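Entry 14. Structure prediction run on the chain below.
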Amino acid sequence: LGRQTRVIHIFAKKYAEKLKEILIQMNSNHAEIQRLIKNYDHTKSTHGEILESLNEIDNLKINLKKKEQRIVEIHTLIDSLNRKISFTEDSIKKIKTSDKYVKYLDLKQSLNTFDNKKNQIKNEINSQFTKISRPLSRYEYISSDKEQKNLLSKLIKDPFDVLVLKNKDSIITILENIRKGISSGSISVKDSEKSSFQITETEEAIDGFIKQVDDYVRQRQHIQDQINELESGELSMYTRDLNTALSDKDNSELKIKTIESEINTDRLLMPKLISEIQVKLRMFSSVKYTITN
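Output returned:
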């Protein structure tokens, strides 16, 4: 470079310093741009959150009106149910104070009392058949006749249920077969003479037992027929309607409580959302905003 060397070094130093200043300024500008971008993104996000909260408040207001209207509708339904309950209760009371219903109750009571007679008959029958329970059970074990075995099983379990006229001959046959088994030794008993006597005693009692059972069944059925004639279909209908109305009323009152709880929750949420919006608005202005719902 010769004589130009010194001049070139002077200019190089001067431009290097200038370049350094430019780079410093560029870095500063870059940082400012990043800050502005960050602020913009945050502002945009906050703006979106505010709009979202405003929409949520609008939806809450709409839902509150719907729920309040629903409560009004349910109260109207409850009023209607109360009228229906009052009507059905009056109708039931009217039926239950009628002569027909009083007679119906008397017959029901007679039927319950009459059922005690069945226990008396059963006890008498069971007492007799208990005396021959051992040979009956032994005969059931050795009997090969399927029809007899089926009847014998019922006779051992509850003789009252099979002591009817159509079974008389079969029962006598079973008792005679048991007597023969005792005599032949195929049915073992402690005292064959005593067992044979008890079988004879049972056979002689069969006609009386059958008559007692038949009389009981006929008399009971006669009372039941009278009850069926007097039984009120209207009473059943009103009772069913009353139970349905009471259940619907309980469910409606429960719905009101549920909706009222939801309304209280929504009303508590609204001021919270408004407060959050007011705080976020302070980011855009130093003015303090107050939002009313």
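The radius of gyration is 50 Å.
Filed with the rest of this week's runs.
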